[in-house]
Amino acid sequence: MKRFLILTKANMLMNMRNRTTLFWNFAFPIGLIMLYGAIWPDAISWLAAGIVVLNLMSSGMLGDATRLTDLRERGVLRRVRATPLPAAHLIASYVAARLVLLLAQSAAIIGTAALVYGAQFSWGGLVAALPLAVVGGLVFLLLGQAIASVAPSTSAAAAIGQALYFPLMFVSNLFIPLEQLPAWPGNTTRWTPAAMLVAMLRPALLPVPAAHPAAINAIGLACYGLLALVLALSAFQGWQLARLRGWRTRARAMAPRRRALGMSVNFAIPSAILALAVWQVARFTGDRFNLPYQARMLWSQLPDVAILMLVSTVPDYAQGCVKLWWAFREHRRRTPAPAAVPA
């Protein structure tokens, strides 16, 4: 716990000491609410919820996507993985720091709308909106990580994020009501993550009816978050497989024990994950040795867990098999041919 708190504090300080981050995280959304309030002062309460969602979306799909891609390009993530620091602590501290900043930004937007333009928000509505902002921020953070995992460079991550961000900004009921859009985009875009989040956040803050039941929007956001997580994990494994192109050269300079350890890790970790899953499923089915039956039960009862298991284990096995094949070919190349027997 102490390590997690120290890492969270360090992430917070890095964000607070960056002037560019401070401007885009605080000055820009506050300036945006001031601008919209000057143009449409009577609708500032309705617009404030949209600006909160817009800020969550931009922080995840633009800020985090480009930042994580830049860290990967500069090799920071690779160097961190070489340290004894657990990856779970690093990811949890990064997410916690980002969520704290997102909540502070949302509070600044709501506070500006209330203090400057007299927007009316009840304390009960603010309390109900707090967990919605946390869930929405987490979903957009996952979407940003998915963009970072598939983007080959920082500029590509920025381009992908902007290509998704700007259309969602105008068609997700943030500033323009869906009723004013044509029929086909209005019926389609109400299922975007930004539209579903604002459909839950706005009724919590204001006495307006919800377009859909909150449960449907919550399930939709959860699906977006799960898909983003699966995409990020699978793309990360893809980057790991791409690194195999230089593994043979690096392996030639390794000691035999270190090379064998590197290959065994690719089989040990996914095997441990599968063994744990089989053991857990067997506790409920009672049949510990019928592996096909357990696999069918897992796929039918917990398909999301089964997909995550496939994404996290199959690339490791493939990487290990490729390494073994290269090691076998290298061993045959170095093995001298038997001397010819004189006649």
Automatic annotation (TrEMBL):
Location(s), subcellular: Cell membrane; Membrane
InterPro entries: ABC-2_transporter, ABC2_TM, ABC2_TM_bact-type, ABC_2_transport
Keyword hit for Repressor: no
Molecular-function GO term, any one: ABC-type transporter activity
Keyword terms of this UniProt record: Cell membrane, Membrane, Transmembrane, Transmembrane helix, Transport
Keyword Cell membrane tagged: yes
Highest taxon above the source species: Bacteria
Sequence intervals crossing the membrane: 21-40, 46-66, 87-117, 123-144, 156-176, 214-239, 260-282, 302-326
Membrane topology: Multi-pass membrane protein
GO CC terms in record: ATP-binding cassette (ABC) transporter complex
Chief site of localization: membrane
Domain ABC transmembrane type-2: start-end pairs: 10-239
Similarity-based family: Belongs to the ABC-2 integral membrane protein family.
Record's protein name: Transport permease protein
Species per Swiss-Prot/TrEMBL record: Kouleothrix aurantiaca
